[in-house]
Design brief:
single chain; mainly alpha; 2 domains; two-stranded antiparallel sheet; 9 helices; about 5% strand; globular
Length: about 290
């Protein structure tokens, strides 16, 4: 008998969460490979959505590029791969246009094919690679501290999604953006934002301080929680918008009870670069003498 939706969700969580925690803690090439696999799966789903919308991306090439990008970030950090970034980006675009020249006739919109292919790599692997950047942030000296920093946007994303769902079900009436995501309500959005701000403050007190010897001022923690909470909701709505254009309900049916990989990480994709961006400002993360 097929697993119920709830049982499937629990089973996926039991398997996936320990893998993610272990990969983040170990770091290095292991983390890069896990990020590459997730990026490749998400990119392939994005190309599938694009194909439903009438685009013809270079899906296999883009999927491979999404897998390789986090590995490139890893080897760049180790000093084994130090390319001139602008020239490398130009060579990637040259290669994509060369492929489009031979694989896409003028009627198959080669410009759109190249644009969607490149977007797929940057939207998935480019954004997910900020998890690797957080793991090895300038302030990080231990695996435990790096893991604590990585899981900050992870936890806030989960809190935002969970709070938005339950507050929306309990209090939601007015729709947030019915033309994009009919299920989301204004009350759910406000609830998600409030709980995300509180979670940011709590995470700083009870995780960052004891595990990373880092802290956030209360006002900074609340402001960061708001910024990340907004980015999570925008990321979720953006993926809904893309699925609307493609005429699909889920990005795929890869994960039982969850839909596709992109469905699970849409908010996280926006939360990671936003978190890293704010952590680059001086005096945001504070050292704690212990």
């Amino acid at each position: 008998m097929a697993l119920s939706n709830l049982a499937a969700r629990v089973l996926v969580a039991v398997v996936a969460i320990p893998i993610v925690i272990a990969a983040v803690f170990v770091g290095g090439v292991i983390l890069a490979v896990v990020l590459g696999i997730v990026s490749a799966l998400a990119a392939r789903e994005l190309y599938g959505i694009a194909e439903h919308g009438g685009y013809t991306p270079l899906a296999r090439t883009g999927t491979l590029g999404a897998f390789l990008l986090p590995l490139g970030v890893h080897y760049f950090r180790e000093g084994r791969f130090v390319p001139p970034e602008i020239a490398l980006g130009a060579m990637v675009i040259v290669a994509l246009f060369t492929l489009a020249l031979f694989r896409r006739a003028p009627g198959q919109h080669p410009l759109g094919a190249v644009a969607v292919t490149l977007l797929g790599v940057l939207y998935t692997a480019g954004f997910l690679s900020f998890a690797y950047a957080l793991r090895y942030h300038n302030y990080i000296v231990t695996a435990r501290a790096g893991s604590a920093l990585v899981f900050y946007p992870f936890v806030l994303t989960w809190i935002s999604d969970t709070a938005g769902f339950f507050v929306g079900r309990a209090l939601g009436r007015a729709k947030l953006m019915p033309g994009v995501s009919p299920g989301k309500t204004r009350a759910g959005a406000v609830g998600a934002l409030v709980f995300c701000m509180l979670a940011s403050w709590a995470y700083a007190r009870w995780v960052l301080v004891p595990f990373a010897s880092l802290d956030l001022r209360p006002a900074t923690a609340l402001a960061l929680g708001a910024a990340i909470g907004i980015s999570v909701q925008i990321g979720d709505l953006v993926e809904s918008l893309l699925k609307r254009e493609g005429g699909v309900k889920d990005s795929s049916h890869l994960i039982p009870g969850h839909g596709g990989v992109l469905d699970r990480i849409d908010g996280m994709l926006f939360a990671l670069p936003v978190t890293y961006f704010f952590f680059t400002f001086p005096h945001v993360l504070l050292f704690v003498n212990r």
